[in-house]
Amino acid sequence: MLTVALVSACKNSTSNTEDKTVVEVVEATPDYQYYGDTISPENAIPVSEILANMKGKDSIAIKVTGVVNESCKKKGCWMKMDLGNGEEMRVSFKDYEFFVPKNLEGETAIMEGYVKVDTTDVAMLKHLAMDAEKSQEEIDAITEPEIGINYVATGVIIKPKS
């Protein structure tokens, strides 16, 4: 197994916060790449089963697997996954402690963490649209907060396409 440590600095352009250095430890095997806490692929349920597992709860701890629709183009600080019902779930990483590659579209992810129903305000939606390299017209069209399913991952495994 190969272990690599990557260090990057980033600054949130929408606030006056200081630069934050993020240390990301990546372990790679021939079949998987690991980010964040070390997790195993066993017992992950399909991401499409999240809503059935929530059964009226506003949040639960759960391990899921599914195909990544999109990942942050700027620094890999979020992903979007299809819930199987025409809606997407946004995935962030616990305490902004690690990032994933910026080109994960179509890759399979296995994640451990918790899922919650949450409201994302307009400022954050616009920030996410900028990260996704949306046009200014698309960013300006965002005028309402969004209620959706958000997942906070403590560990992620990426299984690259064969």
Structure commentary:
The protein has about 160 residues and is mainly beta. It has a single domain (about 35-160), classed as OB fold (Dihydrolipoamide Acetyltransferase, E2P) (Beta Barrel), CATH 2.40.50. It is about 10% helix and about 45% strand. The chain is built from 3 helices and 9 strands. The chain has helices spanning about 50-55, 120-130, 135-140; strands spanning about 1-10, 20-30, 35, 45, 60-70, 80, 90-95, 110-120, 145-160. Strands 5-6-7-9-8 form a 5-stranded mixed β-barrel. The radius of gyration is 16 Å and the shape is globular. The model is unreliable at about 1-25 (pLDDT under 50).
**CATH architectural arrangement:** Beta Barrel
Return the structural class. mainly beta
Cross-sheet strand order for the largest sheet = 5-6-7-9-8
Q: Please give the alpha-carbon distance between the first and last residues.
A: 19 Å
In percent, how helical is the residue content?
10-25%
Count of extended strands:
9
Q: What is the C-alpha radius of gyration, as a whole number of Å? A: 16 Å
Oligomer: single chain
